[in-house]
Amino acid sequence: MSNATPGADEQFCSSCGEVIKKEAEICTECGVRQSTPSSSSSKDKTSAALLAIFLGWIGGHHFYLGNTGRGIIYLLFSWTAIPALIGIIEGIIYLTKSEDEFQRQYVN
């Protein structure tokens, strides 16, 4: 997996994570056909970050991102301060990632 940051006309391969052209239908590194991103599968990183910061204590950001199991764990431990602290940290992490990196790591 490449540690390079994709340029304006590049993206990460959905399978191996190599940097490839956005127009590429097939990854030159692993040969996997790239799916066209649909608007229904992408999540807004700012929304996820705000949910993590303000509703992280009940796992709001995990429910938003489709991680229902992790959201339930946060909900079960919501009476402690642990999910709230982790939620704030996760919100800051979400905000520091690029949009492509966020989509690749947390959504796809």
Describe the protein:
- By secondary structure, this protein is mainly alpha-helical.
- It folds into two domains: 1-36, no CATH class; 45-107, no CATH class.
- It contains five helices and two strands.
- The protein has a two-stranded antiparallel sheet with strand order 1-2.
- A hairpin with a 6-residue loop joins strand 1 and strand 2 (19-21).
- Helix 1 (45-55) runs antiparallel to helix 4 (82-96).
- The longest helix is centred in the C-terminal third of the chain and has 15 residues, at 82-96.
- The radius of gyration is 16 Å and the shape is elongated.
The global form is elongated
Strand order within the widest sheet? 1-2
Count of DSSP-assigned helices = 5
The end-to-end span amounts to 16 Å
Protein name: Zinc-ribbon domain-containing protein
Membrane topology: Multi-pass membrane protein
Keywords: Membrane, Transmembrane, Transmembrane helix
Organism: Halobaculum gomorrense
